[in-house]
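name: query_chain
kind: protein
chains: 1
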Amino acid sequence: MGKNLKEAMKMLEDSQRRTEEENGKKLLSGDIPGPLQGRYENGCAYFHEEEREGLAKICRLAIHSRYEDFVVDGFNVLYNRKPVLYLSAAARPGLGQYLCNQLGLPFPCLCRVPCNTVFGSQHQMDVAFLEKLIKDDIERGKLPLLLVANAGTAAVGHTDKIGRLKELCEQYGIWLHVEGVNLATLALGYVSSSVLAATKCDSMTLTPGPWLGLPAVPAVTLYKHDDPALTLVSGLTSNKPADKLRALPLWLSLQYLGLDGIVERIKHACQLSQRLQESLKKVNHIKILVEDELSSPVVVFRFFQELPGSDPGLNAIPAPSAAASAVGRERHSCDALNRWLGEQLKQLVPMSGLTVMDLEVEGTCVRFSPLMTAAVLGTRGEDVDQLVACVQSKLPVLTCTLQLREEFKQEVEATAGLLYVDDPNWPGIGVVRYEHANDDKSSLKLDPEGEKIHAGLLKKLNELESDLTFKMGPEYKSMKSCIYIGMASDDIDISELVETIAVTAREIEEDSRLLENMTEVVRKGIQEAQVQLQKANEERLLEEGVLRQIPVVGSVLNWFSPVQASQKGRTFNLTAGSLESTEHTYVYKVQGSGVTPPQTPTGTRTKQRLPGQKPFKRSLRGSDAISETSSVSHIEDLEKMEQSSGGQEASEANSHERHPEAPAPPEAEPPGALQDGAQGLQDDRPVEEPESLR
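structure:
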């Protein structure tokens, strides 16, 4: 009985071992299970934590495959025939340096392939130029080793022409590796031909963690190779149980989601991007950079303003006759506005997961990549609609600000005392600095007096309660203080704004000078008063004599012959800046009236505003946007205000022409008034009683 039991256990173990071996062979040499089943045939998988680690191991595998004596001779083999790694100019930043550091290769082994410049997308690899580079490297005795293509670039999500690149790699014996966010669409039923061509490559790297919103999930590198010894030497396979457990978090997550859950999340992200792309196509002044990539789950857009009187199609490429400085200034202005737009959208719609990035050709853009953020943030279709509504609400602010910039610059340059500061990173109307009397224009250091004036100017401008935002900060490429004017949401009267800034800054400077002068005058007056009081005490001693200063004798002498001494002091007149005696105050028990200080000068032009109209708004007179009743009433109020102010000015002018002490001439009275007055005087006299009543 025991012998039979042992034989049965042995047979069960052998059967289980054969089953495991068959499953292992099927996993190593068969299709990849899961959503990619049937797409990537005869592939193996390597799980790793760092996204770039899989590509580094693939490079080691390519080196061992092409250099047969590398295991024995090492880098001496590479010295005779240097390997070349080809990377796209749109690849992830720092990828080439990482590969060289991991492989121990010098940087000249990297070859950067430029993108298209004339035909095709400006973010796709130039295949014709790549073939020319390969031929040149072969003629120089180098070995083209590996090419990294993109199925969705890191910036805008463009896909290279992987089909043509595969043909080129097969022709010259180059290993083709593909990576990118568009590889996630391989799990869907419909896949574009450009992405489907990635299934024919030698290896690819997938990042299911960000795609599915799974934390602590490793990345996967799929590769095709038949020699298990080389894969073991390259580090793609391992006999350690700990290395085999790397796939456990991913396996558990995929089992939890299931095939339908994986496909649903990727499909939902692609639908969000298509929904945003279709909505933004209907919005003016918004340019989409990925219009030809219908299957790309990445949407990149930016705000642009067409130049008046020019062809919209020619705005993308500057005219040769245009000045480089003007083109650069317009580019920086649009970049600042797009950066402001991206930050505003991120605050208003945080569930969208937007990012602001700088592209070499297009400039600053806003990127929407739901495949990398939607699963984590829970982005829905309502969030996309809210994002489009926010973009439409910000467009009037952007267009109005861009139109007022040039007018603001001209007004500031035409105003004395103001300096226009060209700050390319400021998204508002502009930057202005007030030049005071002691301002050193050649110096770039901090100016305390200017900082004090600009701080007071900022406080005054914020007290006006206008729709504009003001802030103070250092000048671009300098330490001097400036006033930064924010975005304009409505038609602003730039001339009134600039005049208000100039007049207010001039008043603050004059007030500060008056205070400094008054401080100096008060200090000198105190010193002079001390000298005069000391001199008065000496005169009093000489007048009273020495005997009156002796304690006992002085008291007796003052009792017999008291001294009639008047109280004397000094007063300081701030208006006149002089010392005066207090004798008049003690005699008449009143103080001197002094001189009335002059009024602070104001602006040369004062604008009458309608009731409820905020500062710096253009007048609504003659505007078609106002209703008839409201416009008539507002115009009548404005005319009444102008007439009342004009009447007051005229009366003040007439009163100033007269002598201040001369009485006003009596006005001529009508004859009827004289008779009434005489009759009134007669009525005031006593009336005698008749004799019959006595």
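note: The mean pLDDT is 77.
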